[in-house]
Structures are given as C-alpha cells and as structure tokens.
C-alpha cells in the first residue's frame, strides 16, 4: 500500500505512538494515508481505538519480523 507519509514509532512505549500519530495526522490532508511502524504490542488496540474515535480509518495492518505496520486514512 502506498502511503503519503511515514511514521517510525519503533521502540516507543504507550502512549508515544499515539502522540506521534496524532501530530503526524494533524499535518495531513483528509483522505491521505499515514504508514506507522511500531513495536509496542499494545499499539494494535490503541491505534485502532484512537482512529475510530478521531474519525479516521484503519485501512490495513500487518506484522513483519516483530514490527507492526499500520495504515491510517485521515478522516
């Protein structure tokens, strides 16, 4: 999936992946995709809930070699 912006949140513990995601999303246009890489296992639930509460869409997520990859579409 092609993302408009990339955020490296690897090695960060909660709540920093959410804090950095919010900051990145604030700089983006509606409909753009943010790709986030995280290693905190709690990020899956946190980012999903945060996206839903903020009117954004979790388009896709997967895990590769211990790295969680998320694709959020700005709402």
UniProtKB/TrEMBL annotation:
Please give the family membership noted in the entry: Belongs to the sulfur carrier protein TusA family.
Its protein name is UPF0033 domain-containing protein
Q: Which Pfam family is one of this chain's hits?
A: TusA
Which organism does this sequence originate in?
Answer: Peribacillus deserti
Which SUPFAM superfamilies does the record cross-reference, listed alphabetically?
SirA-like
Q: Which parts of the sequence belong to the UPF0033 domain?
A: 7-31
């Amino acid at each position: 999936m092609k993302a408009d912006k990339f955020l490296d949140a690897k090695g960060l513990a909660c709540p920093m992946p959410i804090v950095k995601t919010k900051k990145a999303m604030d700089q983006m246009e509606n409909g753009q995709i943010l790709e986030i890489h995280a290693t905190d296992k709690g990020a899956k639930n946190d980012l999903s809930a945060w996206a839903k509460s903020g009117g954004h869409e979790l388009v896709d997520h997967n895990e590769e070699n211990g790295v969680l990859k998320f694709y959020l579409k700005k709402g």
